[in-house]
Design goal:
126 residues, 5 strands
Amino acid sequence: MTAHRFLTHQGVEILAFDFTRTSSREETLERIAAARDEVTRHPLGSLLIVTDVTDSYVDAEVVRALGVLAADNKPYVIASAVVGAAGHRDGVRQLVAGMSRRSFQGFEELGAALDWLVEQRRTTVT
């Protein structure tokens, strides 16, 4: 699977980042760089993002890179959801949120995350 793709859920377009099963710092940093490149191609305040971090590689350098990515992407994003941030990865989610002064709603399943993102879109449009 590519590192990112657009999904349509209930008629709403959502940018999905796949960080699942990354096995090294280098692979994870490459996906972070690809995410940065993709997000900045879109208008400010236009994106709903879901990121799946199930079984992803995490170390201090990755956490720092995620914090910078999240801070840089803030102007482009309406709402973000994270899937698979259980255990220590939930701590990483919270740390990145604090570093970037953003919030990332955590979910165990993709479907629930997509439903939540659609609802966030609907509340910002009305």
